[in-house]
Amino acid sequence: MEEKLQEYARLLVEVGVNVQKGQNLVIACPVECAWFARMCARAAYAAGCREVIMSWRDDALTRERFLHAADEVFDTVPAWQQEFFNGYAKEGAAYLAISATDPENLKGVDPDRIVRSQRSGSEAMKEFYRLEMANGFPWCIGSIPIPSWAKKVFPDLGEEEAMAKLWDAILSAIRVNGDGDAVRRWREHLDTLKVRVDKLNSLGLESLHVRMARHCENGLAVARFLQSHPQVSWVRFPGLETDPYYSMAQKYLPQGVCGVVSFGVKGGRKAAEAFMKRLRIAAIETHVADARTCCLHPASATHRQMNDRQLAEAGVSPGMIRLSIGIEHVDDILADLAQALEKA
Q: What is the pTM for the complete model shown?
């Protein structure tokens, strides 16, 4: 277990906050988890951290404060505390929060005191939270099991077994298995995520709100075209008057429904697969909201592991096609669908 804990500490420092040489690191930690904060500090210094600065808290003292402190203290935040968090945030220090709190620590506390304390804290540390949300400094949260939390998650187990179970759940979720390679695994995972982010960014989703009118307009035109086509057995699009959700769409989406149209090709799976192969403009993709028209045959793609009975239970017929209509000229979209249906 010791190896896993050290691996976890390294992961938080080297990937979670990605501490750089010469950078300060602020660690906020409950006093009962001081042993793990020390592990993180050692990992940070090994990574070249300039200084580790501790911010301690204690559940028991926090509860006593909310129960017995003078009422006015919940409307202010000490100047030193504001300077501590705002100051380190402005300089770009990394911030690691070790989370381990009794879920019922504030049970029975006057909720008004909690709300006022949160309000005053938000105002006093406005700069800290602004920079946090704007990636002005690297920050990360790491969870550590404590008995009160573990027993809440696994109430039927004894304390020791509940703690072990919660540790297993946390370490498994963060890819820590004790082989010392968690940092490498996470860096590979982040590389994979970057590829996916680049793919999504290439779709131009940031301009979706500008394109929506065209998506909706083209979607309606395609739905009406399909509704009257002899090779189509059914069409689902909430912008059609015959759709069961038409009245709801008119009420909640009065400026346009969407660009997603589902329909059934007569002839079932074989005809649907033939239709997909003959498309020239529409791209075969699983996603929606692309600027391009995208097409999916669920039975041979996203739901290919299901047989016909399972497909029926899931509401997916073998001949079902899902279109995400793009912003191409509508005549080009209709011509592509027409020629593909003609040969299906």
A: 0.60
